[in-house]
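Protocol step 4 of 6: structure prediction from sequence.
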Amino acid sequence: MPEQRLRTAVPSCPWPGRARLILPSGLTVLTERAPHPVTAVATTYRVGFRDEDEQTAGMAHLVEHLMGRTARRAARSGGTGAQVVAESRRDYSIVGAVTPGGTLTGVIHAGVLRPAGLSIELDELHIEAALIEREYQDLIEARPYGLFPRFLAARHLYDTVGEGGTGYGDPQTLHRQTPAAVTAFVGRHYTLARTVLSVVGDFSPDEVIDVVAEYFAGAPAQPASRQPWPVNGPLVQDREVRYRRAGVPTAVALAWRLPDPADDLRAHVGRVLTGQAAFAPDGPVAAWLRDTYRGIGARMWWNTFNNPWESRTGLCLTVELTGGGSDRLAESAMALRQALPGLIERVSQPDLDILAARHRLDLTRKFDHPMERARLLGTMEALFDGATCWLDLWTVLCATAHDPDPLARIVEATGCLVMRCET
């Protein structure tokens, strides 16, 4: 293993501190005072695809659609010009809003939903299910574009719907859902104790708490509620799956499970940077393919829907190979699997420094926008229960360690999923 080298070049962090308070209702409130001309709020629920089972697969995504619809309706009626965002992921779901000026009450009413107050009409349920079905065709079935079904990798790497599901479930099952079933799912999971409210604007923490406390007046006290994080070791044995799809180019993918980032944030950052450098267009993997399997190309993804900083479960490294016939792709995939640990070892420190700088710049740009700032504060709180934050990630990126061995060891010593897709 190459000697570990630590580069330390820590510029001043561009983000001020924040205030954090857990109310008697169990709701976690984060505030950050910033002199922006707008006010942003994000409601982050510690609920996502990982809370689903066979009967409720796709429900978190459906609830996100319904909450977004409700929030946009509230924004229109409030007349504040609020812009609403909504998204669902494997580990969390978010509804948020940003309004011009210092309208704290208006943005709270638009971007903060009382889960028990979510109204569900049957026709709206059918409309959102139809929209999700189209998304399913585009992203999961990868049609009509003829793309490799890479979102299905986690399904075959992990053994539960919560970790391996796509978040879309089955379109036919979604169309059969009823308002009562959705209400039951919301009541079971979307409690205030699993909710994080983050506010970014020119308000003191006391001002925010006063408005929030009034908004949630009468909410019963709840004990802290944390859905246990799944514990998955590395895949022990190889797995193989085949797909046949008309119009889809022949491709082969290799995929490995990745550890929970909460186990060691520094190691997680090192894996991400090392993997990106190894599979860069001018990196060692591309050079090896040019020398040994000319015409074969490789693309890498970290997981299904999130960037590698915003996930804890269902994480996987996926490598797709294209550009040849079925037999040649299979041969190159197996050869790459054997060569990959050594190729990862070739990643250089300057390449890691460049990638770390790019990620720091990306974080800084995101934090320049109040809505993105509120969303990311809530995301990190929901993912790591207050144990870490984006400041920790910034600090680790500023001190880049060159130790490719953890990633090399994963691809060398753990089981691998082989996905083959043929026309």
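Step 5 (inspection) to follow. The first helix runs from residue 59 to 78.
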